[in-house]
Amino acid sequence: MSIQASAQHWHPLRNRVLALAAMIQAAHLVQGIARKGMVDSAEMQRAIESILATPGNESIHAGHLYPEAGQLRTGLILLQRLLSGEQVGTDVKQAKEMMAYCAAMMSLERKLSRNRDMLAKLGEGISRIHKQRDYFGGAMHDNVIAALAALYAETISTMTPRIIVHGKPELLNQSSNTNKVRALLFAGIRAAHLWHSHGGGHVQLLLRRRSLGREADRLLHESEHA
């Protein structure tokens, strides 16, 4: 990788767009589990790894977690459509639902950032689960996902607004699906933290939609020619 290409990975705008795309992709994966019982394994693994990466390091960039734009291709496509006003999919209700999930993730992350006791508990839990991942041989092991889900339920899920996931009861009542959903919501809130830490906020979304959209376009082009 050239020095110029490497420097781009730490550009604030790139990091903001990657963080938004990661959050949207997590919400999209939640919808897939809740409505169809299906999830893209590679995308979910990347989301789980983003929670477990370098525990205790709060200065990490989105570019560290997602060094290749193609890892967030689905999220970038959805973000591009949202920013341009295009219809996200065939179901308007699902598009609004996805945006509601993202709004709740951002709101929860802001509250979480001011709760030192809960942040400490999360840090301890993530460090413990990081060791479990190494023991079980990967982030996608059922025990690792279950541990992340339990940590989410004990901490973030006790805060308001609680994220109510809509879908088929017969799917959401399966413990394996519940664990995946909670782990992905956790990952989405992690991405919301990255968005805010890179200078993102409501003003950015309102006033810099065009520049965010252009960067999403550029990253999509990069993913296609990697």
Written account of the structure:
- The chain is mainly alpha-helical and 226 residues long.
- Helices cover 73% and strands 0% of the residues.
- Helix 6 crosses helix 10 (175-197) and helix 8 (142-154) packs across helix 10 (175-197).
- 40% of the residues are buried.
- The model is unreliable at 1-7 (pLDDT under 50).
Q: Count the E strands.
A: 0
From the N-terminal CA to the C-terminal CA, the straight-line distance is 11 Å
- Strand proportion: under 5%
Counting DSSP H or I runs of 4 or more residues, the number of helices is 12
* Uncertain residue ranges: 1-7
Percent helix: over 70%
**Could you say which structural class the secondary elements and strand pairing correspond to?**
mainly alpha
CATH superfamily: HflD-like
CATH topology: YcfC-like
Supply the number of structural domains.
1
CATH architecture: Orthogonal Bundle
Mean pLDDT metric: 90
The topology string of helices and strands comes to HHHHHHHHHHHH
**Structural Rg:** 17 Å
User: Which outline best applies?
Assistant: globular
User: Strand count, sense and closure of the main sheet?
Assistant: none
Oligomer: single chain
Tell me, what is the CATH class? Answer: Mainly Alpha
